[in-house]
Amino acid sequence: MAHAAEPKLNIFPKEIAGIPGSPPSEYKDIPDTQAQPSTATQPVVSPPRTPPGEKDEHKARKISQGEFESERHFYPRVLNAQIHPLVQSFFTLGNDRIIARYTHLNPQVKPEHLREILSYQPTHFQWAGSDLFNVTTASGQRQMIVIETNSCPSGQKSMPLLSETDEHNEQGGYRQVIQQAFQSQLSKADPKLGGLAVVCDKNMMESSGYAAVLSDVAKEDVWLVEWYVDDPDPNVKWEDGVLHIRDEAKAGGRNKMMAARAYDFYNSELVDTGLGIRTPETINNVTRGEIPLWIHSMGGHAVLKVPYSNAGQGVYTITNEVELGAFMAEDHHYDKFIVQSLVGNASWSSVTRAGKFYHVGTIPNKKSNTFVSDLRMMVAGSENGFRPVCIYGRKARLPLTAKLDTDVNTWDMLGTNLSLKLPDGSWTTDTSRLILMDRKDFNQLGLGIDDLIDAYIQTCLAVIAIDRMASRLMANGRFDYNLFRSLNPDNALLKEIQQANNDDF
Length: 505
Fold this sequence. Notes:
Layout (H helix, E strand, L loop, with lengths): L60 E3 L6 H4 L2 H4 L5 H7 L2 H12 L5 H8 L8 E10 L6 E9 L20 H17 L7 E5 L3 H15 L3 E5 L9 E4 L2 E4 L10 H14 L12 E5 L4 H7 L4 E4 L9 E4 L2 H9 L7 E5 L16 E2 L13 E10 L2 E11 L15 H4 L4 E3 L5 E3 L4 E2 L13 H25 L7 H7 L3 H10 L5
Parallel strand pairs: 4-5
Antiparallel strand pairs: 1-5, 2-3, 2-12, 2-13, 6-7, 8-11, 9-10, 9-11, 13-14, 14-17, 15-16
């Protein structure tokens, strides 16, 4: 057994936040998308924080230059898809024209303020993706709102290629991420330190794609290694601050609580600029006993979130006593939760201080059904500022209803996450609800280029907020445990952090 010394670059930072929803606990629970919403309430199950994997099928392996093959790293339907002209136009705008367009439509925003934001160089959070809802108010004011922001976001395998003539066209956004977010760090690394590795716990299609492109860009071999939280004999270990791998990190965790606090802090700094991160109303650090009180204050409709889950897990839509009772009866590992206003239909959304937001949704289909949809906007930051990398959309399993039955399970109408847990504990993706940015799918979303610009700016603002929070927590080059504890006083989480970082405490 051989070991690789410390990687030259920690390429894949931990995730900060995730995607709304509590999908079925197993693949067999997926309802027929043509069926009407079921009135039976399914049991609410929270999967493990890190999904178990098929370790024997994906042993650590070395990726060499020239190994990238499109068929391995894109969905089959993406390989033959043609990018929608409007989406292609958005990607070719550039930040200068985006600033000119946005400030023309929003004269309260000064161009220099927006230019400063889009030119921001992240210190810790160079690659991210926000999930956004297209919402409106009773008065018809449409806007994009941020639901969650992810590091190591998925999306490359779902994005049609933007160009048919570029030299590295087949690598699509994979190469954009490596070049924009990480290439400058590669040039600063000392080759004597060791090798490069991509460490992941799911989504091998994209993880292996990044490893292959990283090998091409760095012109050296890259190790692709899986690492799971409960693995008794992982192929990765830390010794004296050095990461070792068995030669036979694109892994992410999340903290929606800290992301929400970061948004609040940054919004207070942006108050005079006409800009701000738009989110549903969010209550942080809520104890289990307080949850019914907060839900009642929002009109009986809300979203409950376990702050550290991902892949759509640990998020619960609450619109009736049955759903609330199921959540309260569940055994939760962590002490604190997030209560967020629910975005539903006009007649059954949460009541907040800012009024009601409700889903614009997809363009009605031939049956006149509208589905809840979201948009993933992926960006990368470098010394040249931000740039969009890829976009995709998702829709819920069942159509949005005008009237909400008192005993209906609302997840099927509101949940857009595509991750599905299989009976053996592994994961798959429900690609039937994936909306590509191609000529066939994009029009379902009913979005224009100004909506994409709005989504891009909201994503950049969210990423800056989280990056600035990370910089505060690492102000002296070490993790500020006391500051973190004051912002996120969850004893169960704090014990886990201490166990993994004994040297810092």
